[in-house]
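S.,

Sequence below, as promised.
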Amino acid sequence: MARNEIRPIVKLKSTAGTGYTYVTRKNRRNDPDRMVLRKYDPIARRHVEFKEDR
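The prediction came back faster than expected:
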């Protein structure tokens, strides 16, 4: 099915070194590069950058 090719599931891993991850989907056509989002890390108890982990 085309759904998995266009919008794959990606893991976002915390750069704080806590090992906390978020799981999301991304549009590969609009964002071909790796995703970097600033989200909340409950283990570090602050907002940090989360980078796409393949």
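The longest strand covers residues 46-53.

Coffee later?
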